[in-house]
Amino acid sequence: MSDTKGSPPQNLSRRSLLKAGLAAGAVAGSAGAAKAAGDPLITEVQDWNRYLGDGVQARPYGTPSEFESHVVRRDVEWLTASTESSVNFTPLHELDGIITPNGLCFERHHGGISEINPADHRLMINGLVDTPLVFTMEDLKRFPRENRVYFLECAANSGMEWRGSQLNGCQYTHGMVHCVMYTGVPLKLILEEAGIKTNAKWVMPEGADASAMTRSIPMEKALDDCLIAFKMNGEALRPEQGYPLRLVVPGWEGNMWVKWLRRIEVGDEPWHQREETSKYTDLLASGKARRFTWVMDAKSVITSPSPQAPVTHGKGPMVISGVAWSGNGRITRVDVSIDGGRNWKTARIDGPSLPKALHRFYLDIDWDGSDLLIQSRAMDENGYFQPTKNELRAARGENSIYHNNGIQTWYVKADGTVENVEVS
Amino acid sequence: MSKFLKALCLGTALAALPGLAIAGDAAKGEKVFKKCAACHAVGDGARNKVGPQLNEVFGRTAGTAEDYKYSKAMIQAGADGLVWNESTIAAYLAKPKDMIKGTKMAFAGLKKQEDLDNVIAYLASFSSASPAAQDQSSAEPAAAEQTQTADASAAAAPVSATRDGGVFGLGREATEDEIAAWDIDIRPDGTGLPVGSGTVADGEPIYSENCAVCHGDFGEGVGRWPVLAGGHDTLREDRPEKTIGSYWPYLSTVYDYVRRAMPYGNARSLSDDDVYALTAYLLYLNDVVTDEDFELSNENFTDIHLPNEENFIADNRADEEHYAQKGEPCMSDCKPNAVEITMRARILDVTPGSVDDDEAAGVGGVD
């Protein structure tokens, strides 16, 4: 405790971090016997209390404290053949509230991050339109725009968990989701500007990246709530999120939210592109495969405690916290169980409750220090509630991969460590 | 081997010249390197990928990057004394297979001298053994800036003007050439197919040169790269193999995807006829056609049907039992007995670098 500088915890393993936490608790517990001495962090003047810190402009674009350097996106190297067509994961266990910081939004690329000067970027609308058009970024910023908070979840989020518990941490099991506020132009306005022909039933967004990503989207959705976004959380999109322009397809699988958006084709039939045939189709036990499974159903996960966020305090007050979301609207309720799903208590949703956005929930408990099997179960405004993983496997078989919104169980042990398990 | 020896001798001679300056522009070379980046890493933390990492490649004996599995030919070249420097790298990158017959590198070669010079300058900036390159780099920013300024003044600054028509009168009409350049998508009904053709036999060398390094000689996939062929009748099995022949519903998707995104890291580099030939070859690898003389063209394209076309169905999730369970969920005594743990995380610590690849093999990937 005499090391007043402290040290960033990224060098500590989870286990040693836990020990440190327990040790700190022990010190605090014995402090009563030495009232005269007291905590040197209080009784001695600290450097930061004496000397001047950095002035303004020392950090023209601010970044988190050095003590938060462990809070980063992480990947699982063996998942994919190359990092340019791969994924990393949002550190959900370190976050609170409902907004994901821009630098922590998970990445999924199919041809690496395109670096595009916005002055060189064009958006083309062609196909079944009265006038095929080309817009510059300047043009797009002259349309009326909207601000909307939405979650984006990859259809493969929790896909590695489909057959059973695999990865120890909600960053890896559930971290292909993020939630930010987008600023952009309704896609409807752009389509109307070109004039949609009466036989137009589908649109196909296309990316400018090295995979030239494409997906077919039904016209009804395109005219409903899709946005052509150029800002996230108030600032320009990050390059890894499609700078300078991306499509926002609220509540639908992330692969459709085409980044580096350069073209929208209008047609009368779907295109059956690679990402909607060979990928992002849900193989059933029968050998049949569902296609165009766009909506992300209601889902939730407890982010703390979780394997990467073990309990570092003893028995007594404990905050169980997590996130819930639904592609079909608002979350109206989240129930939490601490006994593996035998008994449930309704958690408290705190913060904004917006349709197709993350919701933050809390259950404040008095932990008796015994083993727990904690679960959360989300319900959305349509009365749909989250199924168990066994229900999903019974309905779809073992090879469906995508759209795993099953209830997650964390095993909290008496020593505070947490493990990813499935239960009877 | 004779060509290689010639190049080697030439290289050695050139390398011996004192103060040889690199003609290229490292900043431009960084762009050229994008063609290489699918397989090679360079810079901070660069690791071996499909190809070896390229830090300190200058002065490195061929075939000696740590932990990289080279072709026999490359190891032999190193044993014969090949050391990478400006000229040997230039000779290799111009025509890799001419210089090292049997190299694993599938890249066909850089055709433009300018690209060669630039990418070498870029690589040199990651090697301490090439002082000439470092001298060069200090002079580069100014030169690069000048070029940029010139480019900017030559092209009209993008302005946002209004036009007649539309609701807001924003944007401008797209030209036919512009639409043709970007609108390259193909639908299952053949809409969008360009005029052209190619045979299975034409496709084989194109595949070997551009695709086999990742997808394997027979479409079996190298490492975790996608498997393209085989897997018939595996969709109901424990580990289904989803390939073009076993899973993909439409051939149009193959043509469309190869043309827009392949070869990985060098998209849009194949001609339309090349893509017809490759598509024909992929049909052959999947036993959909069996004749090496089979020619695929825009004329007969829609006659071909993939075996699994009929097995795709609409999203009928809502028919599943658990979707009907609306209303109040069970809140107490929902399970008859105390809950038991039935499964535990297979991989207890996924901190990067801590997972044994072999142990992890067989875990479902993301796509």
Description:
In chain A, 13% of the residues lie in helices and 29% in strands. By secondary structure, chain A is α+β, with helices and mostly antiparallel strands. Chain A folds into three domains: 1-53, no CATH class; 74-290, Sulfite Oxidase, Chain A, domain 2; 299-421, Immunoglobulin-like (Sandwich). Chain B has 367 residues and is mainly alpha-helical. Chain B has two domains: 2-140, Orthogonal Bundle (Cytochrome Bc1 Complex, Chain D, domain 2); 179-311, Cytochrome Bc1 Complex, Chain D, domain 2. Chain B has a two-stranded antiparallel sheet. The longest helix of chain B has 24 residues, at 131-154. The two termini of chain B are 42 Å apart. Residues 1-20, 131-155 and 351-367 of chain B have low confidence and may be disordered. The chains are: A alpha+beta (424), B mainly alpha (367). At the A-B interface, β1, β4, β5, α4 and α6 of A face β1, α8, α11, β4 and β5 of B. Chain A: This is Sulfite dehydrogenase.
Poorly predicted runs of 5 or more residues of chain B: 1-20, 131-155, 351-367
* pLDDT averaged over residues of chain A: 93
The biggest beta sheet of chain A reads: 5 strands, mixed
| Largest interface (CB < 8 Å) | A-B, 120 and 96 residues
CATH superfamily descriptor of the largest domain in chain B: Cytochrome c-like domain
- In percent, how helical is the residue content of chain B? 25-40%
CATH architecture of the largest domain in chain B: Orthogonal Bundle
Organism (chain A): Roseibium sediminicola
Signal peptide (chain A): 1-36
Protein name (chain A): Sulfite dehydrogenase
EC number (chain A): 1.8.2.1
